Amino acid sequence: MLLAIDVGNTQTVIGLFEADELVRSYRIKTDSRSTADEFRLTFRGLLRDDPDVTGVALCSTVPAVLREMRAMLERYYEHVPHVIVEPGAKTGVPVLMDNPKEVGADRIANSLAAFTLYGGPSIVVDFGTSTNFDVISAKGEFIGGALAPGVEISLDALAQRAAQLRKVEFVAPRTVIAKNTVEALQSGSLYGFAGQIDGIVTRMIAELGTPVTAVIATGGLAPFVIPEAATITAHRPDLTLQGLRLVYAKNA
């Protein structure tokens, strides 16, 4: 089985593939203070009922975690082939940016998966710590995108900076015109982020000058925003894991 590990700033997503099929996935918090040995204990607990891992694909946006993950692979998976999405790895995704090294490994994995599954041009909207908009050309190139503050950190910042406001559950209120503070926060957050998605995606499509094959949503909070965002056409919660599987196949 292939073990795919996507380390984000807030959460780490772990997937197990049997051939092309994702058979199991887990989501745990990302702790930049964890050591290689602690990661090993976590993985051993999660994977104790699964067959032996025959390959590992990893991407990380957290340098401290990447260092410890690399140490874990070298120490505990020394006989298992592994691929890390970083400069030098074959991805098949040309990065048409001023500084390609600035682009996060997760965005490269998402772009490869989006182009493979949906073709191009296409747009990925990844609801993570930041909300990432990634634009893939008709040739499968990463041509750029946009970054916006994520849903959770925006709500956290509002609760911390406003004395009489607090963090609320991110769900749809009864009405857009809210009658209490909790639902007013929910209305502004949910429909505000949905409007942000539609506004940015619409501008991107206009700038491309051609229709896109798909606008794919991924990330932990995507299911809450998708029903309110008119421009989203597909939901793939496993998009980054699929990208890691494809990168592994190109390098193994």
Give the secondary structure arrangement, pairings included:
Blueprint: E1 2-7, E2 11-18, E3 21-29, H1 36-46, E4 55-60, H2 63-76, E5 82-84, H3 105-118, E6 122-127, E7 130-136, E8 142-149, H4 151-161, H5 181-208, E9 214-218, H6 222-225, E10 234-235, H7 239-251
Parallel strand pairs: 1-4, 4-5, 6-9, 9-10
Antiparallel strand pairs: 1-2, 2-3, 6-7, 7-8
Helix pairs in contact: 1-2, 3-7
Descriptive report:
By secondary structure, this protein is an alpha/beta fold. It has two domains: 2-84, 2-Layer Sandwich (Nucleotidyltransferase, domain 5); 100-243, Nucleotidyltransferase, domain 5 (2-Layer Sandwich). Helix content is 38%, strand content 24%. The chain is built from seven helices and ten strands. The chain has helices at 36-46, 63-76, 105-118, 151-161, 181-208, 222-225, 239-251; strands spanning 2-7, 11-18, 21-29, 55-60, 82-84, 122-127, 130-136, 142-149, 214-218, 234-235. It has a five-stranded mixed beta sheet with strand order 3-2-1-4-5, sandwiched between helices. A five-stranded mixed beta sheet has the order 8-7-6-9-10, sandwiched between helices. Helix 2 (63-76) links the parallel strand 4 (55-60) and strand 5 (82-84). Helix 1 packs across helix 2 and helix 3 (105-118) crosses helix 7. The chain is globular and about 60 Å long. 38% of the residues are buried. The model has no long low-confidence stretch (mean pLDDT 92).
